[in-house]
């Protein structure tokens, strides 16, 4: 077995990477070792647990020497590895307590999990939980332990925003906080993960807060042909191009914001949306482009090339693309028609493509990915290439939109 004197001597005399073995207590119990590596700053010493599983060597770092003494390393090895091996479980799946299980750390880890999973709305979730001036982390106390948060803390934070009249945003805060605390609880018991973390959360404090069922009323707002023409001509610059492309293509605002030049085939007038940018992230989505969209994309690609066509300012917290709030602010400043939200334009496309361009509901659903989301047959079995039909439908929309965008006097003359 190792002694402190042996370790110190090995560190002083170290020339190349060396592993010191503290010995094993019997077959199948693993062994504790100290891995020494020479670095520019001196010697790096790490306590490592070694064992075999299915004939393959497994390792797990336990701590750094001398921060973790020899006695502490033996105690950690006995509890985290030897006892776990005796129980027939994988030591790498041992639940470990989070060093600083604060509200901020919980929300940051939850956002990192969503980002790894490729959640499309992760930037907005991060903004509400951590970044905006009145974020949830500050409202609950970002340096408090997550396990210490009570329903009263959550209710107090939400009540202050509800009193300001931002009902929809308040409900989103509740939803995202509930999801974050639920993730923290489940992460502790997720048997599929090798490195589980215990946040100490025994109950979700947000569960006691009733959901505001009236905060997310289904919207009916859709723009008339006259309003489409007014918005098309009045919306300025970058955010205006987002609004115009949603009108022209009928896709989601977030999908439009995240479009890159490499996805647009100008020669064939196609938008090839990769699967990870669609709502369900299951299949790529290709739609033909009307002439109006091709013209916009051509100008954007001339400026930005194959990269993001709606890039954020340098140092932006929204990542490489502009955020939805920027587009929403741009829409709110328009005075050319009654107020609307950017997402109303997708509903507008669905409505005007039906009653104006006379495109069938089946084709409108395919263009907007609705048929692929809710219909079991379409989702699992129907893989037909509808591109010719979609092209014909978009030709109808192009003609209708071209007419709608003409000045009223020219429409009357025609």
From TrEMBL:
Stretch forming the signal peptide: none
PANTHER family found in the cross-reference section: PROPHAGE INTEGRASE, PROPHAGE INTEGRASE INTS-RELATED
Any Pfam family: Arm-DNA-bind_3
Family classification: Belongs to the 'phage' integrase family.
Domain Tyr recombinase stretches: 218-395
SUPFAM superfamilies referenced in this protein's UniProt entry, alphabetically: DNA breaking-rejoining enzymes
Keywords on record: DNA integration, DNA recombination, DNA-binding
Protein name listed in UniProt: Site-specific integrase
PROSITE patterns tied to this protein: TYR_RECOMBINASE
Keyword DNA-binding attached: yes
Molecular functions per Gene Ontology: DNA binding
GO biological process, alphabetically ordered: DNA integration; DNA recombination
The keyword 4Fe-4S appears for this protein: no
InterPro entries: DNA_brk_join_enz, Integrase-like_cat_sf, Integrase_catalytic, Integrase_DNA-bd_sf, Integrase_DNA_bind_dom, Integrase_recombinase_N, Phage_Integrase
């Amino acid at each position: 077995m190792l002694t402190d004197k042996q370790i110190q001597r090995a560190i002083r005399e170290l020339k190349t990477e060396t592993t010191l073995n503290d010995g094993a207590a019997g077959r199948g119990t693993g062994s504790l070792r100290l891995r020494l590596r020479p670095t520019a700053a001196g010697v790096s010493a790490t306590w490592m647990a070694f064992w075999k599983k299915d004939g393959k060597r497994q390792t797990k770092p336990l701590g750094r020497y001398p921060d973790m003494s020899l006695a502490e390393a033996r105690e950690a090895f006995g509890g985290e590895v030897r006892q776990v091996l005796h129980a027939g479980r994988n030591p790498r799946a041992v639940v470990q307590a989070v060093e600083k299980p604060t509200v901020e750390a919980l929300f940051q880890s939850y956002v990192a999990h969503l980002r790894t999973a490729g959640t499309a709305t992760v930037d907005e979730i991060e903004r509400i939980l951590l970044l905006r001036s009145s974020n949830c982390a500050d409202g609950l106390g970002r340096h408090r332990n997550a396990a210490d948060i009570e329903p009263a803390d959550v209710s107090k934070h939400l009540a202050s925003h509800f009193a300001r009249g931002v009902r929809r945003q308040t409900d989103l805060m509740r939803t995202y906080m509930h999801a974050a605390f639920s993730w923290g609880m489940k992460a502790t018991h997720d048997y599929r993960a090798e490195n589980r973390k215990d946040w100490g959360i025994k109950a979700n404090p947000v569960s006691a807060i009733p959901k505001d069922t009236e905060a997310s009323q289904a919207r009916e707002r859709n723009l008339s042909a006259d309003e489409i023409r007014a918005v098309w001509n009045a919306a300025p610059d970058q955010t205006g191009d987002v609004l115009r492309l949603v009108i022209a293509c009928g896709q989601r605002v977030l999908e439009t914001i995240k479009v890159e030049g490499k996805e647009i085939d100008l020669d064939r007038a196609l938008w090839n949306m990769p699967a990870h940018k669609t709502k369900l992230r299951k299949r790529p989505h290709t739609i033909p482009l009307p002439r109006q969209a091709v013209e916009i994309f051509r100008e954007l690609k001339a400026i930005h090339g194959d990269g993001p066509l709606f890039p954020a300012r340098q140092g932006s917290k929204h990542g490489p693309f502009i955020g939805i709030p920027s587009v929403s602010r741009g829409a709110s400043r328009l005075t050319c028609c009654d107020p609307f939200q950017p997402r109303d334009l997708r509903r507008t496309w669905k409505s005007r493509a039906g009653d104006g361009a006379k495109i069938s509901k089946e084709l409108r659903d395919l263009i907007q990915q609705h048929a692929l989301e809710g219909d079991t047959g379409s989702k699992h079995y129907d893989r037909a290439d509808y591109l010719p039909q979609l092209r014909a439908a978009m030709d109808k929309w192009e003609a209708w939109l071209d007419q709608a965008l003409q000045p009223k006097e020219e429409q009357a003359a025609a």
